[in-house]
Amino acid sequence: MREKTWTSEFAIEVGMRLIRPERAGPARSLAVLLHGMGQDGSLLASKLSDALGGSRHLLIPDGPLPFERSDGEQRLIGHAWYLYTGDQEAFLASAGRTAAWLEREIDAVVAAEGLEAGRVHLVGYSQGGYLAGIMLLDRPRRYASLVSICSRLKHEVWPDRADPAGLPPIAVLHGEKDRFLPIERARESAEALAAMGARIDFRAFPSGHGLSPEQAAATAEILDRIDAAF
Predict the structure, then answer these.
(1) Residues contacting 215, CB < 8 A, separation 6+
(2) Inter-axis angle of helices 127-138 and 88-113, to 10 degrees?
(3) pLDDT tens by residue, 40-73
């Protein structure tokens, strides 16, 4: 028996949220908020939209990959940004496909809303922080900053992909009680990138893996400061 194999594209609809600022301002910037694994954009909308809205637009997409999870009583469908089995190259390929799709969505929003192309902030929580780091590496000049919350910057893949000294400001906000991703791992990656020349602002918070109000306030302060400097 002869076997034949091939690949075929399969598309699904992905939820997107765009929150316009309540008041007009000079920033004309966009913050892209990326949720954690198994979640959707509603969580970050509830935790960050009030703090980050101000005079900037917020784009809050759902991850494009369905992710089945349980809340203890029922099965739910959440979302993920990439597939990860431990294979580094497969991870980068999966994250790269999502990044290419998301960047097209970002470009469309920037054009439609009349925003400034170089003033796009990436804010990633947990798995969203991993994807945001890859996106920053692939096109560092198009982003104004990266805020990684309860996540880790994969410094081991950075030397061959981008010049850390040429990256925009990066903030890493991590909980000291994070049991899912210990703060030591996040600190190690931040310090490794700082040693390469990246501008890293590492902040520890007395919280766990959940996104805390203090981290939301710190994110707002960071983005406001960068927007004001333009």
Answers:
(1) 149, 150, 173, 175, 205, 207
(2) 80
(3) 999 999 999 999 988 899 999 999 999 888 777 8
Spell out where the chain has E strands. Answer: 16-19, 30-34, 57-61, 65-70, 75-80, 120-125, 143-149, 170-175, 200-205
Alpha-carbon distance 74 to 77, whole Å? Answer: 10
- Residues near 58 by beta carbon (within 8 Å), at least 6 away in sequence: 17, 18, 19, 30, 31, 32, 33, 45, 48, 49, 52
Mean pLDDT confidence for 128-140: 91
| 150: alpha, beta or left? (left if phi > 0; alpha if psi -120 to 50) | left
- Matching residue, tokens 């970002």: 106
CA distance 61 to 123: 12
